[in-house]
Amino acid sequence: MEKKNKLLTIGQFAALHGINKKTLMWYDEIGLFHPAAVHPENGYRYYSYYQSSILETILLLRELDVPIAEIRTFMKNRSAASMAQLLQEKIEELDRELTHLKAVRKTLSYHRQNMQTLLTMDLSKISMVQKEERRFVTVDIRWDTSFDQLVELITAETKKYQLRRLHDASYGTMIAVESLYQGNFEDYSKMFIEIPFPIKKSGLHTQPAGNYVRAFYKESAENALLCYRNIFDFAAEHSLVLSGYSYEIIINENVIERQEDALVQIEVPVKPKQHISCKSLNDSAESTVDGYSDAPRFSS
Fold first, then answer.
1. Which long-range contacts (CB under 8 A, 24 or more apart) does 160-164 make?
2. Sign of torsion, CA 196 130 250 146?
3. Who is most buried in 5, 159, 260, 278, counting CB within 10 A?
């Protein structure tokens, strides 16, 4: 008890709380936190051990970016009720920030994966990949939907889910496999947007888990046609049935300046007539896609 009643110098008190003694001097000057005693002759400040909890409260609020004026008002009128309310507000702010940071991390991982694809994969070959189930927000579009209209649709959806920036979400376009079999390779019917955090909404589109054919082409109508024809040949060769939708994204938009340099990734779910593993299909896959649509496609 005697040690707790002993006064500490400003240096000792600052070291105890891991701060600079100039911070304590500033708090004193602005009337936020005063020392327990001041030497009448030399003006040295001294602090009591029992002031530690008060200072820690101030430091916590500062760490939570509460303005000095608000802290001063709070400290003059603090109570259990006001403290509980303030902490609840800050917890909710932190939860929102954590959600945002998780979304940013997911987006960064998505872009890093695309860069790794560009750097390590033979983009001229068709391959098989296995994907987990994903949930998308979708917007209906038409073949004649303009670039400006697509931008408006994307912007509206990202605002709806309170995303801070357009590229907090990943997005692309979808073509029904039925349209592909009919030779309509630019019959885009939906734009998909993957919100990078869990959302509760009815009517979301489910991209099914399972095996997918993956191919790439440099963006042009002719290259899209050639790429899909090669996909059909690959599927026929390996007794695969395309199903659902083809999902298209641009994987290099972060590192190009011209639309004509866009590299489109196609992924189409497949249902083998007999069980065939992705590995065995990849080992035998040698189909080549040459080249690289003027129709707008998006990715993030």
1. 161/137, 161/195, 161/199, 163/103, 163/195, 164/100
2. negative
3. 278
Identify the H or E element spanning 33.
none
Neighbours of 84 (CB within 10 A): 10
Residue type, 262: A
Q: Tell me, what amino acid is at 285?
A: A
Write out pLDDT tens, residues 192-221.
Answer: 888 777 777 777 889 999 999 999 999 888
Residues in the chain: 300
- Of 165, 197, 147, the residue nearest 298 (C-alpha): 147
Region for 94 from its dihedrals, namely left if φ exceeds 0, alpha if ψ lies in -120 to 50, beta otherwise: alpha
Instruction: For residue range 242-259, list pLDDT tens digits in order.
Output: 999 999 999 998 888 888
Report the C-alpha gap between 137 and 159 in whole angstroms: 13
Strands 263-272 and 240-242 turn out to be antiparallel
pTM of the model: 0.66
Instruction: Confirm if 55 and 17 have CB atoms less than 8 A apart.
Output: yes
* Segment 219-235, tens digit of pLDDT: 888 899 999 999 999 99
Q: Please name which of 224, 227, 225, 196 lies closest in space to residue 297, comparing C-alpha atoms.
A: 224
Q: What share of the chain is helix, strand, coil (3-state, %, to 5)?
A: 45, 25, 30
Distances (CA, A) of 113 to 100, 106, 107, 110, 116: 20, 11, 10, 5, 5
Please write the tens of the pLDDT for every residue from 135-176.
Answer: 888 888 887 777 677 777 777 776 776 665 555 567 889 999
For residue 278, is pLDDT > 60? no
Residue 192 · residue 173 · CB < 8 Å: yes
